[in-house]
Amino acid sequence: MTTVIKKTLLYQLLFAICIYVPYLNNYELTFAIWSFTALFTIQNHYSLGILKQLFCFSLILALASIVFFFKNHEFYYVIRDITYLIKPIIGLLIGYQLCKKFPEKVFQSITHVAFFIAIIHFCLIFYGVIFFKAITVNDLRFYGGYFSDFEVYALIILIFHEKFELNFSKEKTLLYTIIIMISAFMYLARTNFIQFIILFLAIKGYFKINKRAITILVSVIIVSIIGYSTILYINPKRNGEGIEALLYKIKIAPIEPFKTKINRDDWKDFNDNYRSYENIMTVRQITRDGMNSVLFGQGIGSKIDLKQKVWLGDMELRYISILHNGFMTIFLKSGLLGLFIYLFSIYFLFKKTESNIEIVNNINLLLIGTGVFLMFSNWVFMGVYNLSDNKSILLGLLICFREIHVKTNNQNRIN
Predict the structure, then answer these.
(1) Which residues of 206-239 are buried (b: 16+ CB within 10 A; e: fewer)?
(2) What are phi and psi of 319, to 5 degrees?
(3) Taking a C-beta distance cutoff of 8 angstroms, is the pair 276, 257 a contact?
(4) Over the stretch 26-38, which tens digit does the pLDDT of each residue have?
(5) How far is CA 113 from CA 1, 8, 129, 295, 355, in A?
(6) What are the pLDDT digits (tens) for 85-115?
(7) How many CA atoms lie within 13 A of 163 on its CB side?
(8) Is 292 helix (H, G, I), strand (E, B) or coil?
(9) Within 10 Å of residue 350's Cβ, how many Cβ atoms?
(10) Which residues, listed in sequence order, are joined to residue 316 by a DSSP beta bridge?
(11) Residue 180 φ then ψ, to 5°
(12) In the prediction, which pLDDT does 212 show?
């Protein structure tokens, strides 16, 4: 019994490391640890549910690799693209395989790791404020981090702890909820605010097509329009501080990724709508290369010429191989065919596993919410291909957990 507990703790520790390492913003380290964990926990059997997801991402990689043989891309970018495109495959495997090692502790493990990440986040913010006088929104995010989708998932699980059979004491549930909620808010990330709303609505069942759901969704849309109109009326300035900086980011959010004309000579217009600029240059380059590129992309190792150098992170670049937009990145690598396959992987998340088990139905709702969020996340933040993202692990974990409960229930009914 003691040996079993120790093994479970080992795998939970591996899970914590795999979830946290992307926060260090070192993709080489992330790739190494993820690869080791995937190989260390490899299984003999995989379900059809996880194989569908793995097949979609593998097909995108295979398609981009085939196109590469008809191109002449630099070897460095080819190797880098392979590691980038394989990332969600490894993440799905890690989540699925680790879930089988501690199936009874899945949601507890998620919340424990999120609590640990939240404490680290507070320490980083404290460090920035005390030693570098970080008080603006940009400074707080620079030292504390730019987003944390994982903490939002943990927060949803804590809020709906009964639905996910968390079985924490009231005191522990309240403590974890408060700490993780404050930490998630302190990222001041628009995507995380939207993610929370989407997942909350999903767990409440408001994405089902019925009169009540439509009423709630319409109400949310109306409140959002009123709130956005208020922000427009306030008209926060670009160089504002504190909450004004956040309001300015919200103000430009609806057009930032969708603008079709950017003035490169106007640095404000260029910086505020840089995501759109990447998309514009990608579409121009691919369509200029002909119908084959539109259908099948330009393969692994392909790059976009931005026509000028820009600062991305701590590097000044003119050519980029990975964009902010996940859909555009796949379009660049594998064309419309790859994009269609990618959308199919998201579609699989909407395919519910019919069951009379409450927790399975709640996981279905969480996966539906994830599918909705990925449609948005991919457009502005690369979705599961984001180098600092760990959602693919969570997806593999949830898919496996759902299957284990369905299988166990079916066996109990037979017996």
Answers:
(1) bbeeeeeeeebeeeeeeeeeeeeeeeeeeebeee
(2) -110, 130
(3) yes
(4) 999 999 999 999 9
(5) 24, 15, 24, 42, 29
(6) 999 999 999 999 999 999 999 999 999 999 9
(7) 17
(8) helix
(9) 13
(10) 311
(11) -70, -35
(12) 81
